[in-house]
Structure formats: C-alpha cells, structure tokens
Design brief:
The protein contains 15 helices and nine strands. The protein is α/β, with parallel strands linked by helices. It has a single domain, classed as TIM Barrel (Alpha-Beta Barrel). The chain has a nine-stranded mixed beta sheet, with helices on both faces. The relative contact order is 0.17. The structure holds S-adenosylmethionine and iron/sulfur cluster (SF4) (2 copies).
C-alpha cells in the first residue's frame, strides 16, 4: 500500500476539553542486525454521496513539522473498511477471509473522532476492496468531516467513473490505484482473475481525467515482483502520462514462523513463491532501484523516499529489512470490525476495540507488550508504514516528501489518455 504522508491539520496538537492527554510512548530502535473461481467483476460499488463541508486546505508542511513534535502519536492509520474483495490475488489472502463484520456509519463516525483525538492526521481506507462498500462516499465524508486527511486504496476494478464522481463530490483528493503491469497476462495472473486488466485501465484513465489539475496526490501503487521488475521505467512513464505518482511496494510473502503473528497463517500475504525473488545476490534488483532513484532525481513522479527505494532492493533480495519500525506508536491498523492493532501483521492479536484505543495508548503495559513484539518482528517493508517512520526520523525523507507535496499542489497535472491506452495495448479497442 502506498505512502500517504502524515496529513496536515491546522488544529492538531492543541488538546481540547475532554481530549486524552498526549501519549508519552517510548520509541524503540530495532538494533539487532539478525532481525530483520473468477469473481464477478460487476459488483455494486456506489451510492450517492453527501457533500462533506469543505475545510480550508491545511498546511502539509506544518503538519509534518508537528509530526516531529507529536512523534508519540499514531499519525497514520490504515482502516480496512471491508475484507470483501472482487479479485483473488495470489499475493494476498484477505479475499479468502471475507468474514469480518463491518462497522456501520455511526460507528465509523465515532471511530473517526477517536482517531482524531488520539493524534491521527491521515487515514487510508483500504480492505479488501473498499469500492465494494456501497456507503464508501459517506465513509469518506465522515473522515473528512472529522478533519482527517483521507485516502482511498483501490484495485480499480469497481472504481467506476460514477463512484469516482461521488467520491470527488464529497471532497476526496487522495487515491491510490493499484496496477502492477501493462502486460495483461502479468496483471491477471497476479489478480487470479480474468478480465480485470482492462477494467482497471479504463477506470484509471477515467479517474485521471476527472481529478482536479492541481492540489491532488494520486498514486499508482505498483507491487514489485519478478514479473514486472523490468517494467518499472515504463510504469513511471505511465504515472507521468496520468498525472499520477508512482509508489512502489516490494512484494512481501509470508514471513517466518517467528513473526509477530506467532506462527499463525499471515492475515495478509499470500503464499506464491513464483512472485518472490528467492534470495541470493540480485544485481537486477539493485539496478532497477538505482534506476528508479535516478529517475526520481531527474524529476520523474516517484513518491517513495530515496531511503525507502534503497532499502527495497535489500528487502526483496533477503526477505527482511532493517528499519526503525514504529508500529503501535506512529501508525495503527483498524480492521473492518473496528478492532485496532499495531499493524496488519498483528491482526487478531494484541488488538483492542477502537473505543478502548485512548486507554490502550495510555497503558504502559499495553505499550510495553507491543514494543516487545515489534522488536521481535523480522520486518515487513510496506511503504505506508515505513515511510511514516522515515519522515519522522530522517530530515531527508521529510524534505523529499515535502517537495512531493509542494509539487503536487502547485504543478498542473497533464493527462494523456491516448498515450496511456496505447501503452496498455488498448488504443482503438472499444470499452466493454
Ligand atoms: C491489500 S490491498 C487493499 C486495497 C485494494 N484491494 C488494492 O488491491 O489496491 C493494498 C495493497 O497491497 C498490495 N499487495 C497485495 N499483496 C501484497 C503482497 N504480498 N506484498 C505487498 N503488497 C501487496 C496490493 O497490490 C495493494 O496495492
Ligand atoms: S490485493 Fe487488494 S485486490 Fe488483491 S485480493 Fe488483496 S485486497 Fe483484493
Ligand atoms: S509494521 Fe513493523 S511490526 Fe508490523 S510487520 Fe512490519 S516490521 Fe513487523
């Protein structure tokens, strides 16, 4: 999932009456170097959205600076609004669960206020596939009303122009659209679903054309696998033609049995060895990420920090990465049923109902337990988690992200739909 920089909020950091006091959590540095059946594609996706009151766009730089001060707060939260999905990706097992209860709108409103009071500034709405929730526009409006920057993550298949319109109408400005390849077979093989490629591309082009020219940060989420490693420069060019930013996600396959999930099946990553790099020295990985860093330096729309790109090759080659994980401190994961865990790997363990979150954040015992588990984790390398830590801890990453935000805000987006369809091999084909 892609980095959504901790979001700005003009009133953050000012405790209000009834608000829990700032949480003084201890930061942990990880220092041990050794740790380190085709579905229907036309499911219902939307309902008319109610406009959310527009807030004045708060200063992102101010929020990031406040992040430095508020480094003990869960600045970033991922909320899986559903575990239902319309794809059967081989890299992911979420679609196999499809069982979790989904909290309704009143509970989501309560969740949004609780997160806001706990110090959250940015929420990403993922899943499962969030486009399958008919009330997605209302959910987005709810988080925006609570003053949280809000991003929607989607595989795009059900992200129709009608849904995009409803989401933009309630004020959504941040979308992460997943697409791993411009080669139909590569994409649909990972999707475990036929017919997904063309729907993704057509909905992506429609979204690109509907987004405002300025002030948005749309991301193209690309999971890096052996199947698309050589395609990365082409995907950067695609992002440029869409007026999007590329966000790479190194593929993660299930971790060792000593993972924070205690040997239970991983709640997210699928077992598909052919999608992994298999370890050993991989010059092609180093070269591919060096090239991405070079393109970024030359102004290409790549959102990941240089730190993240550098360590991605290492992670893909070795299956582990050293980074100062701040799960449970700087970021949190909320399940469809409203249960809060430090990160996606802890789901079903060390989780609390969201109503008890403020208390858990204040509890020394809970924090200590989470801290020990995080310290023992061999590590994932999800950009949304890692980049939050980098931005708070590294001046360089903070500066890079600030530059991206400023560029996205000021530079006029240009969309070349014809070129995108040509790259995808769909030019001249009639939409089905
Ligand atoms: C779990 S999905 C949820 C949102 C939506 N269903 C989608 O696919 O965009 C979030 C992101 O995780 C990525 N992903 C799936 N399997 C992965 C894996 N094994 N390693 C890393 N990222 C993965 C997806 O491609 C997507 O960009
Ligand atoms: S990666 Fe996203 S689209 Fe694919 S199965 Fe998982 S939740 Fe669904
Ligand atoms: S976010 Fe941190 S604790 Fe969670 S799996 Fe990744 S490295 Fe481990």
């Amino acid at each position: 999932m892609a980095i959504s920089p901790p979001a700005p909020d003009a009133t953050m950091g000012q405790p209000r009456v009834g608000q829990p006091p700032p949480v003084a959590m201890t930061m942990t540095e990880r220092q041990d170097p050794d740790r380190r059946a085709p579905p229907a594609l036309n499911e219902p996706s939307t309902a008319p959205g109610r406009p959310a009151p527009r807030r004045a766009a708060p200063s992102r730089i101010g929020a990031l600076l406040r992040g430095l001060v508020l480094r003990d707060r869960p600045l970033y939260v991922h909320f899986a609004v559903t575990s239902r999905c319309n794809l059967r990706c081989r890299s992911c097992v979420i679609w196999q669960r499809q069982t979790a209860d989904e909290i309704d709108l009143p509970a989501i409103a309560e969740l949004s206020r609780t997160l806001r009071r706990s110090g959250c500034v940015q929420v990403s709405l993922g899943g499962g596939e969030p486009a399958l929730r008919a009330d997605l526009p209302e959910i987005v409006a709810t988080f925006l009303r609570a003053g949280l920057r809000t991003r929607v993550l989607t595989n795009g298949v059900a992200f129709t122009p009608e849904l995009a319109r409803a989401l933009l109408d309630v004020g959504l400005r941040e979308v992460s659209f997943s697409l791993d390849s411009l080669v139909r077979e590569v994409q649909e093989r990972r999707d475990g679903t036929t017919g997904s490629f063309e729907r993704r591309i057509r909905n992506l082009v429609a979204l690109a054309e509907m987004l405002p020219e300025r002030g948005v940060l749309p991301l193209l989420n690309v999971v890096v696998t052996p199947g698309n490693l050589g395609e990365l420069p082409e995907l950067v060019a695609l992002a440029a033609d869409l007026g999007f930013w590329l966000s790479v996600i190194p593929i993660h396959l299930p971790p060792r049995r000593d993972s924070p999930n205690g040997g239970a099946p991983h709640p997210f990553y699928g077992e598909a060895p052919d999608l992994g790099f298999g370890g050993g020295g991989r010059d092609d990985l180093r070269q591919a990420f060096t090239e991405l860093i070079r393109l970024k330096r030359r102004g290409a729309p790549v959102v990941n920090s240089t730190s993240f790109l550098r360590r991605s090759a290492e992670f893909l080659a070795s299956g582990s990465a050293l980074w100062p994980c701040r799960a449970g401190e700087l970021f949190l994961s909320v399940g469809p049923d409203g249960m809060v865990a430090p990160c996606h790997a802890f789901e079903d363990r060390w989780e609390v109902p969201f109503s008890e979150l403020p208390e858990a954040l204040r509890s020394r015992a809970h924090r200590q337990e989470v801290k020990e588990r995080v310290a023992g984790c061999e590590g994932c390398f999800r950009p949304c988690w890692a980049e939050v830590s980098f931005m708070v801890l590294e001046a360089r990453s903070l500066l890079e992200m600030t530059r991206v935000q400023a560029t996205a805000r000021l530079r006029r987006r240009r969309v070349d739909s014809g070129e995108v369809l040509r790259r995808a091999g769909l030019a001249g084909e009639t939409a089905r």
